[in-house]
Amino acid sequence: MGTPAEEAARRRTFAIIAHPDAGKTTLTEKLLLFGGAIQAAGAVKARGDARRARSDWMKIERDRGISVTASVMTFEHNDCIFNLLDTPGHEDFSEDTYRVLTAVDSAVMVIDGARGIQAQTRKLFEVCRLRDVPIITFVNKFDRESRDPFDLIQEIEETLALEASPASWPIGMGRDFRGCYDLLHDRLVLFDRGAGDRILPAEECHGLDDPKIDAALDPVLAAKLREDVEMARGLCQPFDRDAYLAGHRTPVFFGSALKNFGIGELLDGLERFAPSPRPQVADTRTVAPAETKVAGFVFKIQANMDPNHRDRIAFLRLCAGHFRRGMKVKHVRSAKTMAINAPVFFLARDRELAEEAFPGDIIGIPNHGSLRIGDTLTEGEDLRFLGVPSFAPEMLQRVRLEDPMRAKHLQRALIQLAEEGASQVFRPMIGSDWIVGVVGPLQFDVLSHRIAAEYDIRARFEPAPVDAARWIEADDPKVLERFVEANRSALAEDHDGALVFLSRNAWHLRQTGEDWKDIRFNAIREHR
Ligand code: GDP
């Protein structure tokens, strides 16, 4: 074990962002296979999708006791330790997804080669952009008919306003997919479909004129490759690590997760280019990973993993120091000291390793509700990490109680669920019905179910005359006061007491914004 600085330097903590079906699960599996998976944990439910239960994967699960549905997956490659944080996608897409992105240092964006940038890709990308998270792109499924690589690159540049530098260049596609030319190392990496989708050892080339290219490819493909690569080099920005780290440029790899093609190059790219844990901004100063005092923040809560105990696991991203089991840290919000006696480690190949963690690592802390999203734990002086956001919900409904006598209980349940990040709750200044906001519609079903099962309360969600929620702020408190007086019927407080404007429709929001130019209507709020 090295110092926090040395251990941090070999960590890569990242997430995969993708539109459903682009191949995130397949790529995750392959990365774990390729790197030696150490351990992964945090699974709550099995995905009910049979196609995910592929036999090779089941076998890894059995052999190594890991799960694809895990929240954190740790694997090694060369001397690097990779922490891959799962972003729940698909139907249960929620704020959780967004917040996971606050706990990573970089991301891999997977794009389906036939479909290009899709709605969810763009949404997740925007969240990365907010924090300038550097992105490596993997264009997947080149073993199928795909779009022209130039087209795809142009689409990335135009729809995401992100400079794209090809790191590899595909040779053919679909049934004629022959592999890639590795632009970073001048190598030919061939894919041999005839021999059962085997990947041949890379052939080092001395530039594009190397006769090895002619020996390996038929003349038409060789000519096209030369032409494409020359054009790509002429048209696209060359890869530049600083521009990548600043979040302005993305290296683009082409491959096929299903056929194992391009995984090694991607992993190499992550190792060489992706940032190790970055300094984290706190309210009083920036905290560097090399610091010796442990500090970290909670970015996710997973509740009721065991329905018989109302337990929660708080996921803490370590930002500094050397964490040891049993150590005492200060919970800054409550000013209390906590002994972390039973942490869940995700880096736990054997018992000895399970005792400690370093910057970039995630630990799970069982608790009974004392830890909330955005909380800071620290061994050093008081500080609060910034940047764990709440996003304005996209769907808002009113909660109706079947038994009005249970109003206090409902209030407690709604606030607890909001603290955990499962939903947002707003108490209008006028009227008594609580408004609940979520990002995805399925969350309402999950919420009613949890309110019934965990709190024994019957409640229904009903449409509310509310279209959007915006946190409001003004530099001048007098302006804010006047605004509140004039708009009382459209105002509410969230579970933290922050002021929220609930608009009736898009027009109402736009018009109010125009009428009150000194008021900021924020779609994002930071936890403090
Ligand atoms: P996710 O929804 O992003 O997690 O996507 P999955 O990994 O579950 O993949 C969606 C579908 O695409 C599955 O049927 C996969 O087998 C398939 N798939 C994933 N990667 C590839 C690939 O590289 N080539 C082909 N042909 N199919 C792929």
UniProtKB/TrEMBL annotation:
Stretches assigned to the Tr-type G domain: 9-278
Family annotation (SUPFAM superfamilies): EF-G C-terminal domain-like (SSF54980), P-loop containing nucleoside triphosphate hydrolases (SSF52540), Translation proteins (SSF50447)
Listed GO MF terms: GTP binding; GTPase activity; guanosine tetraphosphate binding; translation release factor activity, codon nonspecific; translation release factor activity, codon specific
PANTHER family (UniProt xref): PEPTIDE CHAIN RELEASE FACTOR RF3 (PTHR43556)
Presence of keyword Protein biosynthesis: yes
Lineage: Bacteria, Pseudomonadati, Pseudomonadota, Alphaproteobacteria, Rhodospirillales
Domain of life: Bacteria
Family the entry assigns: Belongs to the TRAFAC class translation factor GTPase superfamily. Classic translation factor GTPase family. PrfC subfamily.
Main location as per UniProt: cytoplasm
Job description of the protein: Increases the formation of ribosomal termination complexes and stimulates activities of RF-1 and RF-2. It binds guanine nucleotides and has strong preference for UGA stop codons. It may interact directly with the ribosome. The stimulation of RF-1 and RF-2 is significantly reduced by GTP and GDP, but not by GMP.
Coiled coil: none
Binding-site positions, GTP: 86-90, 140-143
GO cellular component: cytosol
A Pfam family that the UniProt record links to this protein: RF3_C
Localization per Swiss-Prot or TrEMBL: Cytoplasm
Biological process according to GO: regulation of translational termination
PROSITE patterns to which the protein is assigned, alphabetical: G_TR_1, G_TR_2
CDD domains on file: RF3 (cd04169), RF3_III (cd16259)
Gene (UniProt): prfC
Full protein name: Peptide chain release factor 3
Keywords carried by this UniProt record: Cytoplasm, GTP-binding, Nucleotide-binding, Protein biosynthesis
